[in-house]
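Dear Dr. H.,

I hope your travels went smoothly. While you were away I took the liberty of generating a structure for the chain from your last submission, since the lab meeting agenda had it listed for discussion. I wanted you to have the full record in hand beforehand rather than looking at slides cold. The sequence, exactly as received, is reproduced here:
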Amino acid sequence: MTYPTIYPTGVTVYDPSKTWSGYTIFQARGVGAVLLDMNGHEVQVWKGLHGFPNKLLPGGHVLGHTGDRNNAHGMQDQIDLVQVDWEGKIVWRFDHYEYIEDPGEKPQWMARQHHDYQRQGNPVGYYVPGQEPLVDRGNSLILAHKNLRNPAISDKLLLDDTIIEVTWDGRIVWEWSCSEHFEELGFSEEARNILSRNPNMVPSGGGMGDWMHINSMSALGPNKWFDAGDERFHPDNIIWDARESNITAIIDKKSGKIVWQLGPDYTGTALKELGWIIGQHHAHMIPKGLPGEGNILVFDNGGWGGYGAPNPGSRIGNKNALRDYSRVLEFDPTTLKIVWQYTPAEAGFTIPLDANRFYSPFISSAQRLPNGNTLITEGSGGRIFEVTAGHETVWEYISPYWDKTLNLNLVYRAYRAPYEWVPQLPRPTEVPIERIDVTTFRVPGAAPFGSRKETVVQGVLDYQEGDTALCVLVSDKGNK
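The corresponding predicted structure, in token form, is as follows:
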């Protein structure tokens, strides 16, 4: 399937009567953190504040980072994690995880943060009534990297995922390393064999295995499952997902052990309805106080992921699960039953004929809003949109910011926050934007609708002449 080379950017649809209106923050590649109102006006831009991702805090503060490590030495490592105020002044910084001495670079401390982090007071990093993240104190959970070797996995150098907890004054008080729990992850013998030979080798640092690629991490927070006595869902426990292994898991904060897991294999009877989750992003538990609380919400990218037996799409068995469309899933973590979903079918497309019209094979996210709507980031196409529980699109934004290297207007992750979190601005005027009828819309200067010359077909004459099939169209003028 091909896509248009020219299409509208900015807000294309907005129905204020059906949305949960507020400000939306996202990272504009090459520019900084951008804050939008519902009509697409850029009400603030923090230039040079990178975001992996950016998150808005109460009072108009923003979290992000000030720079990246050279990819020749480390993959997706951020130098620091910072909090800035409305004017862009840094009011908090963490960078003391590892002292880095890369060849040809100035030695420095780095956070090596990537993909996610959470500030105390809020488990998931987006708006939850009654669970506001702290602004002037509190600990932070940070997803980070560490290079190491683990012969149980491979003899190759590994880019391991770690989770650290740091205090407001920068002390690391807790750490968890994924590679230490390899035996708990349930890889098959075939998967272990391919991991040993090729743990998703990337060129950074002279070659290392990005074997799990955890891209989301959050605390569970208060929830009904723990209230009912299920210790697996202790509010302090942490859920994460890994795109390269197709695994989503919950770890016990005290012991570090995995107490709940989905993947890497999805062939069990209980998983038939759920289906394969591939290359997923932003798996988290919907916090208490939001519709669907206690369920797991995840952007199931599709694309490619996993390790196992070779197949026609995977010659040696790496990235061996394949699907060319995405899904947003909400499911019960105790039964694995789907509660709500947004797939190409709900988007109005036909599976498999044109299912890839809803498809982001990497990045992306989903946020549950207080009115029951879901804000979805279809990241690889730079599209952020809000859908109702009945799957109606009531707001849509297409990013105009293009990554020149990748030739994509990608958006890693977007968040919606209430107007009240930005007291520096008056509440904006909300102007509805009706959906354009694409069958009649024309670019100014192009031929208008209805300008074509028409010939009305009156009849069709079909007949066979030898081995040649002929079809003769007869117009209203009798011409053949």
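Two observations you may find useful: The radius of gyration is 25 Å. The chain has two helices and 33 strands.

With kind regards,
E. W.
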